[in-house]
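lol ok so funny story. i was supposed to be doing the assay writeup but got distracted and ended up predicting the structure for this chain instead. priorities right. anyway since i did it might as well share w the group, maybe its usefull for someone
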Amino acid sequence: MESYVINLDRSPDRLKRMADRLNSIGLSFQRVPAVDGRLLSPAEIADVNKPAAEAAAMTPEEVGCFLSHRKCWERIVSGPDAYGCVFEDDMLISKQAALFLGGDAGWIPRDADIVKIEKVPVRVWLDRAVSPLPGAFKLALLRSFSFGSGGYILSRVTAERLLAVTRVFSDAVDHVKFNPACGIAGSLKSYQMIPALCVQTQCFYPKGSNLIEPPALAVHSDPRFPGNLMERPWLERKALQAFRRVGHKLRRHWRTEILFADEPSAFGHKQA
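and the output, tada:
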């Protein structure tokens, strides 16, 4: 399973840090030159980005980020492996990542379209059924939206599907992969690794730390779903949140925050 690191030409220091991180645990990778959204013309953006009705337009940086991920998907499709691993260049990589990324991919479930290996600072709903993995890691199906595209494994078949449906796109890459409101995500089997093999520096280090690497690829726009939950009146929002929680509980899903594997408490997850 090849690893691909998205990196802007103007960010050589970030590439060096990623290379040091991956090389220190014996993992090779291919650099994928990122598309710099700042350099895209309005016509180039209009060719690939069609904003949804009554939704905010994506920023040029978000468009460039999406096109950068598509370049990784193209490499996965044209490569010899059944799966490929994609990283953005501001990730911390666990020392234990070599258990899963450096050799046989037989640990990945046959029905997996995506395996999310990234920690994000929100709680997510997971399927009650949990599969054990080497080193006390686990896998569970994602049952709620989980933002972030800093680290994930993608099957070649799914990469081909994503390329076909995103020749023109209207939303950010993590929404397309993980948000059922965007269409194809609802038909994908997305698994979450517990604990996660990587995390963005801004999600790991304390606010204000000089070790934080701000996202280089994307400057995010306003939410593109005008009717989304967080924009509804307080009482309606609380009622809908409670209704969704009940639905998850009835389906025997459990909710947790995914930790980073190198955190001291990473292997103490309990189902709730």
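The chain has one domain: 2-222. The helical segments are 12-24, 42-48, 60-78, 98-101, 156-165, 173-178, 201-204, 234-250.
back to the writeup now i swear
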